[in-house]
Amino acid sequence: MMNYSSRPAEEPAVRARDLTVVRGPRTVLRGLGFSVPHGQITGLLGPSGCGKSTLMRAVVGTQAKVTGTLDVLGHPAGHPGLRTRIGYVTQAPSVYDDLTVRQNLDYFAAILDPGRAAAARRAEHVTRAITDVDLTGHADTLAGNLSGGQRSRVSLAVALLGTPDLLVLDEPTVGLDPVLRRDLWQLFHTIAAERGATLLISSHVMDEAERCHRLLLMRAGELLADDTPDALRDRTGSDTVEAAFLHLVDEATAAGRTKETTR
């Protein structure tokens, strides 16, 4: 049962306290507490299977059996008022293969902003989103004929429709070539800096951590750190975030062993 306390006047975009998800016999998320500041890129990093996707589903309100407190943009996660304020991209591209890129975006834009009176606004949002993800030359191509990376960019374009306040992107750069990865990260920073949006981006590629304003480092359903890249490097005496992460893993492992021996 989710429980909510009174909120301060100034609050982060996302705040979690004792966030827990249990799936069958397995505890996927273990009492997480963290905050995601407004207008910044927060990276959610950790190895595959550590619970990143589950955490993101909890934030967008699609994860079952969530306990603890999870506030998103001033509302409980999953609140109906958040539907048009959050853009969400899953790992698997969510597009219709038998529609063109533009038709896919037209369809989702009509869901987000229905009615004839909004037609001109929808068309503007669709054109902007296609331009943002650099698919102008493929706007009239069937999604089924696109490469995997291009299909991923269509999903990102869908998430960008309507200028959401919060973008939740689950490994958006996986499988992309280095040039496209660089271009997408430039876009992410533009969205944060010029549009004031908050981005929560997951990855298991540690060099992408250096591109984030703030980091949540996860392992086995637990949060190892919630800090800036510079602070994590300083705290662990490491040259890179990857080295800092490994240092924190070793610390956590040693602490676990100490608990076992003292029982």
Describe the structure.
- There is one protein chain.
- The chain has 263 residues and is α/β, with parallel strands linked by helices.
- 37% of the residues lie in helices and 24% in strands.
- It has 7 helices and 10 strands.
- It has a 6-stranded mixed beta sheet with strand order 6-7-8-3-9-10, with helices on both faces.
- Helix 2 packs across helix 3.
- The longest helix has 22 residues, at 241-262.
- The radius of gyration is 19 Å and the shape is globular.
- It starts with 13 loop residues before the first strand and ends with a helix.
- Mean pLDDT is 90; it is low at 1-9.
- Keywords: ATP-binding, Nucleotide-binding.
- GO terms for molecular function: ATP binding.
- This is ABC transporter ATP-binding protein.
- Residues 14-245 form the ABC transporter domain.
Mean pLDDT: 90
Number of helices: 7
Q: What is Rg?
A: 19 Å
Helix content: 25-40%
The proportion of strand residues reads 15-25%
Rough outline: globular
- The SSE order reads EEEHEEEHHHEHEEEHH
Strand segment tally = 10
Helix and strand composition category:
alpha/beta
In which order are the strands of the major sheet placed?
6-7-8-3-9-10
Largest sheet: 6 strands, mixed
Which residue ranges are poorly predicted, with pLDDT under 50 across at least 5 consecutive positions? 1-9
User: Span from first to last CA?
Assistant: 32 Å
Organism: Streptomyces edwardsiae
Domain ABC transporter: 14-245
Pfam families: ABC_tran (PF00005)
InterPro entries: AAA+_ATPase (IPR003593), ABC_transporter-like_ATP-bd (IPR003439), ABC_transporter-like_CS (IPR017871), P-loop_NTPase (IPR027417)
